[in-house]
Amino acid sequence: MKYQCLAAALLSSLPLFAQAQTNVQVYGVMDAAIAIEDTDAPGEDRRTVINSGNQSSSRLGFRGTEDLGNGLKAMFNIEAGVALDTGAADSSLFGRRAVVGLQGDFGTLTVGREYSPIAAVAAASDILGQGMFGSNLSAFGTNRLTRRLANSVNYKSNALSGFVVNAAYSAGEKSVDPSGDLMGVSLEYKNGGLYLGGGYHVFERLATGDDKEWAFGAGYSFGAFEIKGNYMVADLTGANNEYKNANLGAAYTAGSNKFFLNFQQQKLESGAKGNTVSLAYTYALSKRTNIYTTYAQLRNNGRGNFGINSSSTSVTPPATALGADPSVLSLGLRHSF
Q: What does each C-alpha distance from 12 to 5, 9, 30, 229, 230 come to in angstroms?
């Protein structure tokens, strides 16, 4: 109820924002799809569902800047996730992003809930745009890599000869060990159609040692073709806990049509392995609206029960269904504003 009241208050105050600061922007993405999901688990039948966000997570956001003079600007961004299938909001109202900061010749400094340095590399090197089924979002989540940082201070440099540095510190806000602190850094390079990036996190999750996360990504576009790939690792404290995720994908654009193909492998140090093949297609009805379809099939080995992720949903067998091979087919509509 608190979240609903806060959202209503923000919306009602937009005219005041517009009068006081003309560069405040309201934006969003609305994405809904019908999907056929099959976990392949014993006793479970395939099902037809209505999903929100099978290409891009549905969201509503507010962002703006104020010119402070001498090349310095104040900025803010708050962004809330929305489930179009039910109308529900995310459990955290502005859990997608909630920052305030300063921008200038030195770069951008933000405080709040922000994307991690590794998240920047993962997003830039995923051919599926961290959206359609089979995306590298499977690398993030419990006991995997960290995508968003609460209670964080973040720095992003301006581009210098194509290079950009991202650095972050997230406070665990604990008075006893383990601190829960995370420190991370990434370096990205862009030159024409070429992209290269690498990132590293250290996370004090347990008192017995630090978790380590790293990622490498690359991409190249030439004419109507794009190729992107990445390799990400979450090396958790303890034996047989290391998780690895590798992707290689390509896309081809022909007018309003775009075709995607991606291969993904997930592995655990314990011996579990899953391989995913993803196909996707989008058709642009306008600059802001498109239809899409996406299909993915995952093959787990006898120890694996990995799942298939889109931007907002996952098709994952139960933990007891080792060796199950999930699949999903989705058809949707996305509009941005």
A: 11, 5, 21, 44, 43
Q: Give Dmax over CA atoms of the chain in angstroms.
A: 66
CA 73 to each of CA 100, 101, 111, 255: distance values in angstroms, whole numbers, following the listed order: 11, 8, 15, 38
The Cα–Cα gap between 51 and 63 comes to 27
Question: How far apart, in whole angstroms, are the C-alpha atoms of residue 290 and residue 131?
Answer: 14
Which structure tokens are listed for 216? Answer: 């490498």
CA 324, CA 317: separation in Å to the nearest integer? 7
Residues 6 or more apart whose CB falls under 8 angstroms from that of 232 comprise 118, 122, 136, 139, 145, 213, 214, 215, 216, 244, 245, 246
18: part of which helix (H) or strand (E)?
helix 14-20
pLDDT along the chain (337 residues), means of 10: 49 48 88 98 97 97 97 98 94 95 98 98 98 97 95 98 98 95 98 98 94 98 98 94 97 98 97 98 98 98 97 96 98 98
In degrees and rounded to multiples of 5, residue 316 shows phi and psi of: -130, 130
What residues form DSSP beta bridges with 315?
308
Strands 289-300 and 209-222: unpaired
Can you tell me the distance from the alpha carbon of 244 to that of 212, in angstroms, rounded to the nearest whole number?
A: 12
Helix (H) or strand (E) holding 16: helix 14-20
